[in-house]
Amino acid sequence: MRRAVIAFTAFLGGLIFLLAAGPTTAWAEGEGLKGTLKFQGQPVNGVKIAVAAENGDPVGEATSNAQGEWTISVPEAGKYQVTLDTSTLPPGVQVRDGNNKRTPTVYESNVSNVLFALVPSGQGGKETGATPAPTEPSMWGRAPQLIFEGINLGLVIALAAMGLSLIFGTTGLTNFAHGELVTLGALLAYMVNVGFGLGVIPAAFIAVILGGILGYLQDRLFWGWLRNRGSGLIAMMIISIGVALFLRFLFLFLFGGETEQYTEYNAQPGIQVGPIIAAPKNFIVMAIELAVLIFVGIALLKTRTGKAARAVADNPALAASSGINVDQVIRIIWTAGGALAALAGVMLALSQSLKYTMGQEILLLIFAGVVLGGLGTAFGALVGSLVVGLFVQVSTLWIPPELKSVGALGVLIIVLLFRPQGILGRRERIG
Known about the structure:
Blueprint: H1 2-20, H2 24-28, E1 32-36, E2 38-39, E3 42-43, E4 48-53, E5 58-63, E6 69-73, E7 78-84, E8 93-95, E9 101-102, E10 105-106, E11 111-113, E12 118-120, H3 139-171, H4 178-195, H5 200-228, H6 233-255, E13 271-273, E14 276-278, H7 280-302, H8 304-314, H9 316-321, H10 326-351, H11 358-373, H12 378-394, H13 404-418
Parallel strand pairs: 1-11
Antiparallel strand pairs: 1-6, 2-3, 4-5, 4-7, 7-9, 7-10, 8-12, 13-14
Helix pairs in contact: 1-5, 3-7, 3-8, 3-10, 3-11, 3-12, 4-5, 4-6, 4-10, 4-11, 5-10, 7-8, 7-10, 8-10, 11-12, 11-13, 12-13
């Protein structure tokens, strides 16, 4: 027992040192600028915003998403110049009074809101009759964009949910700290990217490798030790909640409470593909996510380790009696789960932004995807996550964006009322 405690303490100390080795000053500060662009009550997507220091030096760029939101981190408190690129506005839309520049002041540890009022061309005093006022975007006109973003979100959730589902299937553990593994992957990539000056792509590879190593060490030094001591699943679930809280506030202490961004791929101009407008990085991110999920699925079906993992998930006692090393399989699953969670964190940070609560914010959606697809089934987690991601985004056609997660949970409840085992789950006899 003493050896296990010493080893786990060393593991946590190494983790703290690794995170603290990065750019401490940049992480401690949390200043930034943000805003929401709307025209006639509808969000405006694909508008480019640039921020410069008071002396004109560029600071960062961003592009509004399907909810019209944008965020840019700044290095320190002070006055900044914010410029809206009017060439990226939809036809027939202009900034009121033609003033596309703002000079907000950002205070220490604060994110300042920047407002741009959008009106039809020909209104606002500086442009007259240039373009007829556009009709208000229809609900169904926004649907393709939201479906695209829903698939993107669903694939990110699926990366994390597949690892969580495999861990549950092989150990029975409901791990509430899995969201923090997502955050950890994003933070490790940020530390390597900003602190050590490597590009985002090699930083992502390193973060995924470290995420897998940390996943292995978690089971080798902590969860496996509890399991061998005979700790019950309920007790371990409660412990996972404590681990999640510990890691979350550790990230807050080391990283700070505001959003950050990687040094690359921050404000790519949107490209039009049919009715969809998205940055090129979003298409690449989705292709990587899909390729990884297909690879994991093939590995589960075709490799000896994958077949052993499915055997352990079906019946650990029978698998052990067949000569399968159950502990070794479980550690391989923890390694894969940690790597997938780290990759999900990097992909989520590339698509949105990076902050210490990012894993916590999607944890409920991860659980929804796992339960909806069927507890313990990797492919069910994929299907359930895509359904959840699509419904979260598409539901904003009818409900405010702030309530979009509620709609996903509503779908979860409705499906489970008619199919309690989930979409791909199997009925089990009780008693």
